[in-house]
Write a structure and sequence with these properties.
There is one protein chain. It contains three helices and three strands; from the N terminus they run H-E-H-E-E-H. It is α+β, with helices and mostly antiparallel strands. A hairpin with a 4-residue loop joins strand 2 and strand 3. The longest helix has 24 residues. The mean pLDDT is 87.
Length: 118
């Protein structure tokens, strides 16, 4: 797969993720770590194509286990880890906005592709 194909696939995947996660009910205040893994996989494609998108990755410390309850003997926490909805959506939107700005620059300078290359 060539670099442009990797970029196209990554951006389509991120845009679909944004659209589907936005459709989740508002009471879903957190998303589980599977969504973060999918997002990171898309970022991997962008990095393989030469783009510096490391700052958009979700740091491991942002993923937290959810408190499920307790009894007199112990607390119960989820096995899965979760990320705050707002923080995750900001990262997704930021990547898409970055490439949208790059595309606007490209239209002003039609020769070559201008993006946030590392």
């Amino acid at each position: 797969m060539d670099d442009q194909e990797k970029v196209n696939r990554a951006l389509v995947r991120i845009a679909a993720m944004r659209d589907n996660l936005k459709a989740e009910p508002d009471h879903e205040r957190k998303f589980d770590e599977r969504h973060v893994a999918d997002f990171h996989h898309a970022l991997d494609h962008l990095e393989q194509a030469g783009f510096d998108v490391a700052e958009f990755r979700v740091p491991d410390e942002r993923l937290e286990h959810e408190f499920r309850g307790s009894n007199a003997e112990r607390e119960f926490w989820s096995k899965e880890r979760y990320i705050d909805r707002t923080m995750f959506m900001m990262r997704i939107e930021s990547v898409l906005m970055l490439f949208d700005l790059s595309a606007q620059t490209e239209r002003k300078h039609p020769i070559g592709f201008h993006g946030p290359r590392s």
